[in-house]
Structure formats: structure tokens, C-alpha cells
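The instructor's notes for this session suggest beginning with a concrete chain rather than abstract definitions. Hand out the sequence below and ask the class to guess, before any prediction is shown, which regions might be ordered.
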Amino acid sequence: MRNDTASVHPTALISPEARLADGVRVGAFSIVHANVVLAENTVIESHCELGVATPLADGSPLTLGEGSHVRSHAVFYEGSSFGSGLVTGHRVTALAGIAAGVNFQFGTLSEIQGDCSIGDHVRFQSNVFVGKKSRIGNFVWLLPNVVLTNDPTPPSNVLIGCCIEDYASIAAMAVVLPGVTVGRHSLVAAHACVTRDVPAHRVVAGIPARVVGETKAIKRRDGSGEPAYPWTAHFHRGYPKEVVAMWQASFEEIRRDEK
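After discussion, reveal the predicted structure:
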């Protein structure tokens, strides 16, 4: 059902069964299939396809939360749910069975294979690949060309997803192998191949990746000499004020305890 306040380009194709809320905008040559729910003030740019039918979705719709912004040439299958504030780059692909939280940023040319959980305030940069059954926590960073794998003996029918815990950062071109857990507030170095679990607050590097130190030992490159991790102490861009306030309060509590 199309709301009268939705703005749809004349070249766009919108199923009469799709549900478009107030303030939705759909760009040129985009296709919105029947099993789609677009919440208030969602923007769909040109040449997108939303709600591609698949038996893997079990009939559930594609749902995009309030204020989402999907850039051109994106493809989303039915059967996935994204919270408010979703922002994508161009030419992203999202298959069925994805449950993502609020304020998810999904970079250009990235692909999520489906049957995954993604927490709140997660950041994918460009060309990220996430295999089926991956579990990603809150405030996670996956930098360009990161790959989360899931097949321990390819090709096979056995899929074992990775687990990326809250606040973990995985640097450019790193690969995480099936079933590996990357711990809270940890850092995976660029080009690492992670074959075993990464402890919380540790840095791993190399092929295969090995623990090379604690994250708190890494210094910021801004001349301050302050620790770079946990990054929440100094990097706040793009996060809601209430989240930043929570982080700051926790650091104040730690300082008081240290005294």
C-alpha cells in the first residue's frame, strides 16, 4: 500500500502490495516488489531492487527502518530486517535472513550473504563480504575488503559462521576463518588471516594471525601520546549523543575507581 505522501519517480516500479510509509522517496528506475515495508522518510535512490523473492525468506518481508537511505544500484532480498538509520553505499547486496540493528552503515560494493545477525551502530566500509551465519555485535568496524568466511572445507554444505563481538575492529583486507570469535574491543591488523579465536582487548597480526600485544599499548598518531584503544575514548563521529554520553560516563567511572 503506497502512502499518498510518498514520492515515487515516474520510471520506478512499485508493487501495489508494497507498504510505503509517510515521506518515502523512490528514485528513477528502481523496483520495489510486493513483500517490502519501507518506514517513514526512507530514501531509495535510482536503479535499486528491493524485496527480490526467494524461498529462503519463508514469506517474511524486507523491512527498512525509519530514515533509511539506500544508494543507487542496491539489491535487497525479501526476508531481512534493518533498523532505523540504515545508510548504504552504491551497489550493495543483502540476501535473506539478515537481522540488523539501528544506524547500520553498509559500504559500497559490500555483500551480506544472509542468515546473519548484526548489532547496533555497525560500520562496514567498501567491499566487505559477510558469509552466512555470521554474528556481528554492536559498534563493530569492518574496514575495506574484510572477508568473514563460513565454509571450513570448501566447497561443502557445512556452514560455520564467525562471531565478531562488540567494539571489535577488523582492518583492511583481513580474513576471518569459519567459527572464529573475534573478542570485544580487539583489533585485527590489515591483511591478517585469523584462524583461531582472538581474546578481548588484544591485537592480532600475520598469516596465520597471532597475538602481538594489548590494544591499550597502541598510541594515537595525533601527537597526544594517548592510547588509541578503546577507540570510544576519542572517536565519536557519527554516533548519537546519548551513546557518546554513555561512553564518557563509563570512562569517568573507571578514572574514579583508579583514584
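Then share the key points. The longest helix spans residues 241-258. The chain has one helix and 31 strands.
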